[in-house]
Amino acid sequence: MYGRPGVSRASVALVSRRHVFDLLVTMPRKRTAARDQNEVSAKMVKSNQEDEIDGATGAHLWQDGVNAMGDAASAIAPATTSNVTTPSSGGIADRFLSELVAPFNRDVAGMEFGKPVEYVYNPLEYASEPHEDYIRKYCNSTKDILFLGMNPGPFGMAQNGVPFGEHDSVVNFLGITGNVGKPPKEHPKRQIVGLSCDRKEVSGSRFWGLWKTLCGTPEAFFRHAFVYNHCSLVFMSETGKNITPADMLVGARKELVELCDTFICKMVQLLEAKVVVGIGKFAEERAKRALQAGGVEGVRVVTIMHPSPINPAANKGWDQAVTKQLVELDLLQYFKK
User: Fold this and answer.
1) Is the pTM higher than 0.90?
2) Do residues 276 and 287 touch, judged by C-beta distance below 8 A?
3) Most exposed of 33, 230, 261, 266 (fewest Cβ within 10 Å)?
């Protein structure tokens, strides 16, 4: 059993310049039944890299819009001292689902985003079974470190409800199971096939591949860490193009970002996280703003390089670069086999 090593206050240079906004998700009002997923898997379009590039076209605009509108204080849930170490139907996992996920689903279901948004996917609902399996297996204790991504990728969390949820990693490394339904309004070019999705998502493959190399098992990684996203929704236009909050109506954008920021604050306090690691600069900046606005103190916020292929530096040895960053951040000690 690993101990809980101390955390250095060392600061690091911000590495990532561009990030993926691979969002692809429509929010249902209730869980839908699982469909025959194999018959549509052949309709997935073009290459993964093209889809990741398409998803990244407005990531910097999201941050510009967020910076311009400022932040509102967040309502923070009380922290817990539970330290369950095995999958459980109670404790932190139950609180995560009931105090964070359920209110988020309820609140976004009532939002109106207006043009140009035509499709909104919410995998926390239509992929609620594998998402809940992920939470119950790996979010059942307090965590020293929270890794924070930006949004679901088209062949990752959008398909199965698991952050950075590349199929092979989700099924064969994390051991996630569960039926996946359909969004109530699905774009024909962005179909959901759940755990039958055989498209490779580069970001997820790189991300979970690193922890498999460093830790060996999911349990070794999740002993001290957890992974989630700032926002679990993605928005699309009539043509299936990804829409960033910067392209939305100002009121809808402001309400959405404040809701996601509140989620972060509640998650950090529930997990009693000491360090938030933004996977890319956007997530790091969003975490800093959210925690400051929510009055959450004493949490160190840093960043690692985003694994997306749209980031040129990530294509030149992402594993090695991030391992070096973990050493510099004094965090590698948490992730030893």
Assistant:
1) no
2) yes
3) 33
| CB-CB contact of 192 with 236 (8 Å) | no
Question: Is the distance from CB of 301 to CB of 14 less than 8 angstroms?
Answer: no
- Tell me which residue has tokens 């101390």: 6
Sign of the CA dihedral running 279, 167, 206, 316? negative
Residue 39 burial (C-beta neighbours within 10 Å; 0-12, 13-18, 19+)? exposed
pLDDT in tens, 109-154: 988 888 899 999 999 999 999 999 999 999 999 999 999 999 888 8
List the structure tokens of 284: 């790091």
Nearest to 27 by CA among 257, 248, 234, 250: 234
Residue-level length of the chain:
337
Non-local CB neighbours of 210 within 8 Å, separated by 6+ positions: 318, 319, 322, 323
Task: Tell me 69's DSSP state.
Answer: H
